[in-house]
Amino acid sequence: MNGAMSLLKTLTNNGVEVCFTNPGTSEMHMVAAIGQTGEMRSILSLFEGVCTGAADGYGRIAGKPACTLLHLGPGLSNGSANLHNARKANSPVINLIGDHATYHKKYDAPLNSDVIGLAKPVSHWVRSVADAVSLPSDAADAVVAANIKPGQIATLIVPADCAWDESVDPIGQRATPLAPLVNADSITKAAEMLGNGKPTVILMSNLALTEQSLRFADQVAQHSNARLFCDTFTSRLPRGEGRCSVERLAYFAEQATLQIAHAEQLITVGTKAPVGFFAYPGKVGEFYPEGCEIHALADVHEDAEAALQGLVAELGAQNQALRLNPLRYPGLSTGEISPESIARAFSEFLPTDAIVVDESATAGFLTYPLTETAEPHDWLSLTGGSIGYGLPTSIGAAVARPEAKVVCLHGDGGAMYTIQSLWTMAREQLDICIVIFANRKYQILQIELARVGAQSMNKKTLDMLDLSNPDLDFVGLANSMGVAGYKATTANEFNLMFERAMKEPGPRLIEAILDVDVSGLG
Amino acid sequence: MNGAMSLLKTLTNNGVEVCFTNPGTSEMHMVAAIGQTGEMRSILSLFEGVCTGAADGYGRIAGKPACTLLHLGPGLSNGSANLHNARKANSPVINLIGDHATYHKKYDAPLNSDVIGLAKPVSHWVRSVADAVSLPSDAADAVVAANIKPGQIATLIVPADCAWDESVDPIGQRATPLAPLVNADSITKAAEMLGNGKPTVILMSNLALTEQSLRFADQVAQHSNARLFCDTFTSRLPRGEGRCSVERLAYFAEQATLQIAHAEQLITVGTKAPVGFFAYPGKVGEFYPEGCEIHALADVHEDAEAALQGLVAELGAQNQALRLNPLRYPGLSTGEISPESIARAFSEFLPTDAIVVDESATAGFLTYPLTETAEPHDWLSLTGGSIGYGLPTSIGAAVARPEAKVVCLHGDGGAMYTIQSLWTMAREQLDICIVIFANRKYQILQIELARVGAQSMNKKTLDMLDLSNPDLDFVGLANSMGVAGYKATTANEFNLMFERAMKEPGPRLIEAILDVDVSGLG
């Protein structure tokens, strides 16, 4: 058996069963191997950023890695921004990056580049395969690396001859690594802080945001009068009816620092102390008050759920009744279409166990609070700040859980980065509804321009943040790639289109034409 | 004056007058500075790969750098594949990459990454600015680095505080570095080889492919009975009526090795000895015959034109009459649309001094030979092999030479990588005509699959190389981004559409629907 086939069988032996592909010549033996096995589903995309974003979404929902198959250094480069997001989400992802045959590298042919150098900044684990015989065990190591909790980016570089040369038997199933337990002192320390009467904030992310983790945290918070927060951008957050709530830290520093200004103590669980997304002239980078005592109950890789359970026990809060969200709809708007009317329809019609992929940026600011008491759902956010994650991540989420409706909320600017995603949605007939907030500008940047104190707000400057010349036609883009598209210009139109989209399967796109004026900002 | 403004003025003082932008918050002071100066033209794109590809095209035609303005590590990543192509083209490019404020890096905020690590594999020169005071001289150094002949990728990382802090005066004009002359021994050696009667091939690229270089080379070749070749993929090649011809080395190893199988001597000028684009099982990587003597007359950075001129003098070939291409049209086809009918119309109607940007891959194989005697034109190719360069590079070429018609020949698969380019073409009303060869597959990969000896050619395998489910509608895509689109399904339709496109200004797209069957390959 050649290296490619032994690689493939090693991956499927270890539970990797989906490959998001955009291959080239150097990956042809891996393509052929995928074609010959029945156990690996192959999903083609027209651009590598779609593959990596899809692997991110798959990892967040499936809790195990898919693989990508990308074409040498440039293929990795095109997928790199969404790997950055996946890395910040701590998603499990395996990248298979083809490379020139080991003996061909020295010629520095046109497609040659420093693949390891390109891989390191976006990976937790990188290895370049030495020969076909090593390939199966390298692949098994990659799966283990990707499965380090909550998840890691493992990048395996596969020179072409390692794929086509004769190899050895595939590796069987390896044990998936468990998240290590925090030590008992860490729990005792947290319990002491929660018992000393000082105002305390508990900030959570990653493994501290499972449905069960949130229940433990709710008992802790009630018992000790602490306030629960989660990071602004989280990999996955269970929300809606029957879930325990957690406040989300605001994006803008002015608001976030206010939210936790009262805290004398901060306990982090599965995350670190909160800092600004960007620096601004003359503003602080740390969101917590000066002198605030900080204790890390569990770091990102530790078993945060067990730590919170331990804390419940230590505090004796096991019998504390949970504050579970009721089901409550905000009601629909009529008249003008607006971020609020969309948020209301969204909350009203979101079906049970939907997955929300949010890259709505400024225009979606009301969708999050209004869904607090919607049907139970999972909320996925842009963890790494690199726009263009929403459409690809929706693909991966839909592949990981085909029975769920995926709703993708997207700003128009960000959606254009990986617009090729629509074609894969059509090809795979995925159950995804995309809502485009078409305000025809990079509105967040017009706000940021004012916030950073940049002086020029003249036409030439604002043109660099404007998308209205010419207007993009997202319905046309969707139709051109095989996805049904609809344009909503009133609240009623949107309400009807969205209600229908929630009831009918298959990919579709609704372009909500907004006219959000921020001209007063200057 | 703040750092951003002094940076901008330093760039414009040094002849940098176009910026291809896709900025974010960390670049807002640079955006404001561009907005305040009249000397820097700013061109917005919806994706960073468009910016970098455009800078490549601009550099190839203008012979001097434009700059890009990109958003931290992920913005650089999205532009990285086309920087790879630009690096292999030796194009002059300056990247301005925003980064977190120097004092904010330590927080490892969501958008933080190893920007230097991401930049190195795609740059010849990388520097991260230390403070606002250093910024102007760093910018001047970047311009000098980019202008090392034929051109280099210079990446300047600009932390946000270096842009907004008080800086010093901008740097005035620095001298542009000249290409060093080759030493006399190198010319003497080449002359000796050319005089010894052995069959000799001269392989040229980069600075050896100026119109004047080709004239010198033609005199050398006639005088010494040598054969002239150029690399398969060249940054820019002057062709057509009144130019001296040079044979292009074939892409496939089987053909390329045959082309130069007779050579006992190889003289390289502005390039290196030819090797395979990829390795294939059991095939050689080097294209030249075993035992062939190789002499590098001029390396990539040396003054190849002067070296060829010196060689003409050493051989006493100054009075050799030039073999200039005549103007000869191949005539139009009627009936079925095909690669040949398109190539004929293309050669017939290509206007004087057009710029051809070629990413036509398999379907365009006839356009190159049939334009040998077309109107004089420049031919730009995919130097780094990373598909998705054609549309962005066309933007840069059109900006650099607004009086020229730019014709972009593009495969359908490759065009989808940076399809967002269409919007910028519409926004700037650039005089670009795009021809999409819509064969609805990655045809080159179906060929390569057979060539690498991969065994499986079943449906699952071929699906990974297929673009027909669903069909892409390029006319719809163009219209959705403000570009006029036309679909051609017969030779006559294409002939009329293309003729008209050559006569009318402004961006337009012609989708040529091809039905190229390669099913016999398995």
Overview in brief:
The structure is a homodimer. The first copy, chain A, has about 525 residues and is an alpha/beta fold.
Which chains share the greatest interface?
A-B, 100 and 100 residues
What name goes with the CATH superfamily of the largest domain in chain A?
Thiamin diphosphate (ThDP)-binding fold, Pyr/PP domains
Tally of discrete structural domains of chain A: 3
Distance between the termini of chain A: 66 Å
Structure description:
Two copies of one chain form a homodimer. Chain A has 522 residues and is of the alpha/beta class. Chain A has three domains: 3-164, Rossmann fold (3-Layer(aba) Sandwich); 184-315, TPP-binding domain (Rossmann fold); 339-521, Rossmann fold (3-Layer(aba) Sandwich). Chain A is 37% helix and 17% strand. Chain A has 20 helices and 18 strands. Chain A has a seven-stranded mixed β-sheet with strand order 9-14-13-15-16-18-17, with helices on both faces. In chain A, strands 2-1-3-4-6-5 form a six-stranded parallel β-sheet, with helices on both faces. Chain A is globular. Residues 518-522 of chain A have low confidence and may be disordered. The interface between A and B is large, with 100 and 100 residues.
Keywords:
homodimer; alpha/beta; Rossmann fold; 3 domains; 6-stranded parallel beta sheet; 18 strands; globular; disordered C terminus
Layout of helices and strands, plus pairs?
The structure is a homodimer of 522-residue chains.
Chain A: H1 3-13, E1 18-22, H2 28-36, E2 41-44, H3 48-62, E3 66-70, H4 72-88, E4 93-99, H5 115-119, E5 125-128, H6 135-146, E6 153-159, H7 160-164, H8 184-195, E7 200-204, H9 211-224, E8 227-230, E9 237-239, E10 247-248, H10 253-259, E11 265-269, E12 293-298, H11 304-315, H12 339-349, E13 354-359, H13 367-370, E14 377-380, H14 390-400, E15 406-411, H15 412-415, H16 421-428, E16 432-438, H17 443-451, H18 459-463, H19 474-480, E17 484-488, H20 491-503, E18 508-513
Parallel strand pairs in A: 1-2, 1-3, 3-4, 4-6, 5-6, 7-8, 7-11, 8-10, 11-12, 13-14, 13-15, 15-16, 16-18, 17-18
Antiparallel strand pairs in A: 9-14
Helix pairs in contact in A: 1-2, 1-6, 3-4, 3-14, 8-11, 9-11, 12-20
